[in-house]
Amino acid sequence: MPRKAREKSESGIYHIIMRGINRQTIFEEEEDQAHFLQTLGKYKEKSQYKVYAYCLMGNHVHLLLKIGIEPLEQVMRRLCGSYVYWYNTKYQRVGNLFQDRFKSEPVQDEQYFQIVQRYIHQNPVKAGLVKEVGEYKWSSYNEYVDQAGLVDVELMLGMISEEREKAIRIFTEYTNEINEDVCLDIDNEKGRITDEEARLIIKTVCKVKNAIDLQKFDVTTRNEYLKKLKAEHLSIRQIERLTGINRGIVLKA
């Protein structure tokens, strides 16, 4: 069956997800995230795209960008190819790192643009990695509230108010609002992760023989693994059911 054609954006703005192949981790160390952002900045100048938001998670990346002189597919080939070459050299590995086809959705109007940036910035909170949006180091949120570098913040802030301080205040309040936004997501196409898949993820991520073995770790190590499992998009209930660890502990980790 032929692949569905990628939907084009009349505005040139896209919400994009790049995902590790077989849900593989694509950022092992902070140096990896830093290098990916350097790569994003390097090709921003060459391809003349604009970056409005980003969030680097353990095994996937969210981007909100507007294409420039090159089509989206070429931009993504540059980004993926450059980062994978660097990553494979560093970790002495070969082969693909990203799932072969990135996911994208067009962002056509101001309302959805604002929803998507909030959705991207809230990813780490919804995954249970941090309590507040601003606590996460590897998203573009703090470029909006502090000092912009890689991100073109003027479009979003200009939508809100001509007064910069007021725009930043309203942006902060809006982006931290509890909501039920539904946007392009890492698991939208395949539905929820099955228990069989979840058990394999737990065994792989936590390096255990059985999922319930996670109970044997000290509190600090256990909580670090729980954070990683939530970042892999296992549900709180699923982690509780398969590991036998109390729901409250999973939520707080």
TrEMBL record:
Gene3D superfamilies in alphabetical order: Transposase IS200-like
A molecular-function term among this protein's GO annotations: transposase activity
An annotated GO BP: DNA transposition
One of the Pfam families matching this protein, by short name: Y1_Tnp
Location of the Transposase IS200-like domain: 9-123
NCBIfam families in the cross-refs: REP_Tyr_transpos (NF047646)
Listed name of the protein: Transposase IS200-like domain-containing protein
Organism: Lucifera butyrica
